[in-house]
């Protein structure tokens, strides 16, 4: 299971690097003026967001043993995070909902404008906890 999680990490990091290279390449053609540091910051948030939901899917798969449940949990968590973020941006009385949104942490403090936000540490921590829970769940899963 740890190997699969590592494969997910490497795949997402690889996609992040490709994204950065493509945006920088297109930026040369269309005179895009985004600093590399800001682009890296936004990409790190995107990778952490994807990693968290990938690990949540792996955790669900380890607990339930079902590919369908794993996919549903990963997508469902991302959808709930998106919806919480949208609702939190409506009336100010619901602003507190953003703290339950993984998307809020991935886009906090406008990384394309302000660089690497401290909120990424929350996403990283959630990834580490989810990874550990996945390993525990997989080891306890009855494989017989």
Tags for this model:
single chain, 144 residues, mainly alpha, 0% strand, globular
Structural summary, described in words:
With 144 residues, this protein is mainly alpha-helical. It has one domain (2-140). It is 77% helix and 0% strand. The protein has helices at 2-30, 36-64, 67-88, 102-107, 111-114, 120-140. Helix 1 packs antiparallel against helix 2. The chain is globular and about 50 Å long. The protein starts with a helix and ends with a helix.
User: What about the largest sheet?
Assistant: none
Number of helical stretches of at least 4 residues: 6
Proportion of residues in helical segments: over 70%
**How is the quaternary structure best described?**
single chain
- Cα distance, first to last residue? 17 Å
Average pLDDT works out at 90
What number of domains? 1
How do the helices and strands follow one another from N- to C-terminus?
HHHHHH
Please tell me how large the radius of gyration is: 17 Å
Q: How much of the polypeptide forms β-strand, as a percent range?
A: under 5%
* Unreliable stretches covering 5 or more consecutive residues: none
Total beta-strand segments:
0
State the shape: globular
Computed structural class: mainly alpha
Summarize this, please?
It contains 6 helices and no strands. With 144 residues, the protein is mainly alpha-helical.
Question: Which secondary structure elements does this structure contain, and how are they paired or packed?
Answer:
Blueprint lengths: L1 H29 L5 H29 L2 H22 L13 H6 L3 H4 L5 H21 L4
Helix pairs in contact: 1-2, 2-3, 2-6
């Amino acid at each position: 299971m740890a190997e699969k999680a590592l494969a997910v990490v490497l795949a997402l990091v690889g996609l992040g690097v490709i994204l950065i290279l493509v945006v920088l390449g297109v930026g040369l053609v269309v005179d895009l003026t985004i600093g590399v540091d800001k682009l890296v910051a936004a990409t790190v948030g995107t990778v952490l967001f994807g990693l968290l939901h990938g690990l949540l899917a792996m955790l669900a798969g380890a607990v339930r043993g079902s590919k369908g449940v794993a996919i549903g949990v990963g997508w469902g968590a991302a959808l709930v995070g998106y919806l919480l973020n949208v609702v939190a941006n409506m009336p100010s009385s619901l602003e507190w909902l953003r703290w339950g949104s993984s998307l809020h942490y991935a886009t906090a403090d406008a990384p394309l404008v302000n660089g690497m936000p401290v909120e990424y540490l929350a996403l990283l921590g959630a990834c580490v906890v989810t990874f550990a829970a996945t390993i525990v769940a997989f080891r306890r899963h009855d494989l017989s």
